[in-house]
Design a protein that fits this description.
The protein is α/β, with parallel strands linked by helices and about 400 residues long. It is about 30% helix and about 25% strand. The radius of gyration is 21 Å and the shape is globular. The protein binds flavin-adenine dinucleotide.
C-alpha cells in the first residue's frame, strides 16, 4: 500500500531535521527519510562552532538568531546539547588581515553584536592556549558559541518525532514522482510515498535529488577535516573559540583537549555519482598531512596544540555552492519541490533558523525574511558547465576563510 504524508523531507542532517521539526511543529504530517541512520552523515562530524559574525548583515543576523535557537532547543528538550556560549576570538597576524577584522567589527556592531578589537594580552586571557608574540590584532565576539555536533541534528529528529513526524531511516529516496509540473511524492528503495510537498535536504547528495526533480543545481561536495587532541593542561570549556585568519584554522575546547579544523588550500571534491550507493560520510578519504601543515602554520600562536598527541581525526562532506550562499527555497518547474542545501561548511549552526524560515515559507506562503540571495533561480546557464562549477566552488572553499567566518 502506498504511504502518504503532507511533506516528505529527504535527509535527516542539520538542514533536513530542522525543516522536519519546524514543519511538524506547524501541524504537518511529515515523513523524514534517510538513506542511512538518522543524522549520521556530515552533521555529527562537524566542529559544532556557531560563528555569529558572517560576511553579510543578513547572514550575521541569521547566525545570531540560530545560536539563540540552539539554546532554546536545549531548554525545550531539557538537554544541554553541549551548548557553551564561550565567545570567540579571531586573530590577525598580518596588517592586511587586521583590516578584515576592522570590517568584521563594523558588520557586528551594525547588527547589534558588541564585538571589539582587543590587544594580544587580552586574547591570551580569553584563550590561554594563545601565545601572543605574532598576534597583530584580535577581534572578540561575545555571541559566538559551540555545541556537541553529534547532538544537534539528532535532537531535531527526536523533537520532530515528538511533534508527530514519521522517522524512516535506511530508506533511500530513489526518484521524485510528478504529475505534470506538480510533485506528487517520492519513489523509495521500498514503497513509494505520496506527498504534495518534497524537501530536498540530502546534503552532498542534494544535487542528485534536484537533478532527479528536473532542475540540476551547481553543488560540489568537498572534503573537510578536523582533529581533536588529547587533553591539554589548563584547557577549560569556557575558553574562547578561536580562528587564525592566515593559517585558515579554527578551534575550540573539546573534552579537555582542543579541536582544530581548517580550510585546505588544494581542496578535494568528491563526485558521489562515482561512488557506490553504500558510500557514507565516514568513507571520505582523509589526509592527515593536510592538518599537519595547518598545525605547523598555527604553531607559533598555538604551540601547545601543535605538540599535543592527536585523539581524533575525522572528516566529512560539506557541500559548496559557487557563491558561498546557501541554497534554500522552491525548486522552479516542480510545484511542491523545495530545497535546503549548499551548506558551505556552516550548515549545522545555521540550520535552526533556515529550517524555521523554510517552514514558515511552506506553510504560510512567505518567509518573514528575504531569502532571495539563497534562491535556486540565481544560477544562470553558465553554471551548466561542470568544470566551471567545480572551479568556482573550490576557489570559494579555499578563499572562504578570509571572507566569511
Ligand atoms: C570537519 C567538519 C567541520 C565542520 N564544522 C562546522 C561547524 O563548526 N559549524 C557548522 O555550522 N558547520 C560545520 N561543518 C559543516 C556541517 O557539518 C554541514 O554544513 C552540515 O552538517 C550539513 O548538513 P546537511 O543536513 O546539509 O547534510 P548531512 O548532515 O550530510 O545530511 C544529509 C542527509 O541526507 C541523507 N540522504 C542523502 N541522499 C538521500 C536519499 N536519496 N534518500 C534519503 N536520504 C538521503 C544522508 O544520508 C544524510 O543523512 C563542518 C563539516 C565538517 C566535515
Amino acid at each position: 500500500m502506498t504511504e502518504t504524508a503532507d511533506a516528505v523531507v529527504i535527509g535527516s542532517g542539520g538542514f533536513g531535521a530542522s525543516v522536519a521539526y519546524h514543519l511538524a511543529r506547524r501541524g504537518m504530517a511529515v515523513a523524514l527519510l534517510d538513506r542511512h541512520a538518522m543524522a549520521s552523515q556530515t552533521s555529527p562530524r562537524a566542529a559544532g562552532i556557531a560563528a555569529t559574525v558572517r560576511s553579510t548583515d543578513l547572514m550575521t543576523r541569521f547566525a545570531t538568531q540560530a545560536v539563540d535557537r540552539i539554546g532554546d532547543l536545549a531548554e525545550e528538550l531539557d538537554h544541554s546539547l553541549g551548548f557553551v556560549r564561550s565567545g570567540g576570538i579571531k586573530i590577525a597576524r598580518t596588517e592586511t588581515d587586521a583590516k578584515i577584522l576592522d570590517r568584521n567589527v563594523e558588520t557586528a556592531r551594525r547588527n547589534g553584536i558588541a564585538a571589539e578589537i582587543v590587544d594580544a594580552g587580552r586574547a591570551a586571557e580569553l584563550n590561554p592556549l594563545v601565545k601572543p608574540d605574532r598576534v597583530v590584532s584580535t577581534m572578540w565576539i561575545p555571541t559566538d558559541a559551540y555545541f556537541e555536533p553529534g547532538e544537534l541534528a539528532i535532537a531535531y529528529v527526536g523533537a520532530a518525532a515528538r511533534h508527530g513526524a514519521r522517522l524512516l531511516p535506511h530508506r533511500a529516496v530513489t526518484g521524485i514522482r510528478r504529475h505534470g509540473d506538480r510533485v506528487t511524492g517520492v519513489a523509495t528503495a521500498t514503497e513509494p510515498i505520496d506527498a504534495p510537498l518534497v524537501i530536498d535536504a540530502a546534503g552532498p547528495w542534494a544535487g542528485q535529488i534536484a537533478a532527479a526533480a528536473g532542475h540540476p543545481v551547481p553543488l560540489v561536495p568537498t572534503r573537510h577535516q578536523l582533529l581533536i587532541t588529547e587533553p591539554i593542561d589548563g584547557v577549560r570549556p569556557e575558553h574562547a573559540i578561536l580562528r587564525i585568519i592566515d593559517a585558515a584554522v579554527y578551534g575550540r575546547p573539546s573534552w579537555g583537549g582542543f579541536l582544530m579544523g581548517g580550510y585546505e588550500t588544494d581542496p578535494v571534491a568528491i563526485d558521489l555519482a562515482a561512488q557506490p550507493a553504500t558510500f557514507e560520510a565516514r568513507d571520505t578519504p582523509l589526509d592527515f598531512s593536510v592538518l599537519r601543515r595547518m598545525l605547523d602554520r598555527a604553531s607559533d600562536t598555538l604551540p601547545a596544540v601543535a605538540e599535543a598527541p592527536i585523539r581524533v581525526h575525522r572528516g566529512g562532506l560539506p557541500t559548496m555552492t559557487v557563491d558561498g550562499q546557501h541554497l534554500v527555497g522552491p525548486v522552479p518547474g516542480s510545484d511542491g519541490m523545495w530545497i535546503a542545501a549548499g551548506c558551505n561548511v556552516a550548515g549545522l549552526s545555521i540550520a535552526p533558523i533556515i529550517g524555521d524560515l523554510l517552514g514558515e515559507w511552506i506553510v504560510d506562503g512567505a518567509p518573514s525574511e528575504d531569502l532571495s540571495t539563497m534562491s535556486v533561480t540565481r544560477f544562470g546557464p553558465e553554471w551548466a558547465d561542470p568544470d566551471h562549477v567545480l572551479e568556482a566552488a573550490l576557489h570559494h572553499y579555499a578563499a572562504f576563510y578570509r571572507s566569511t567566518i
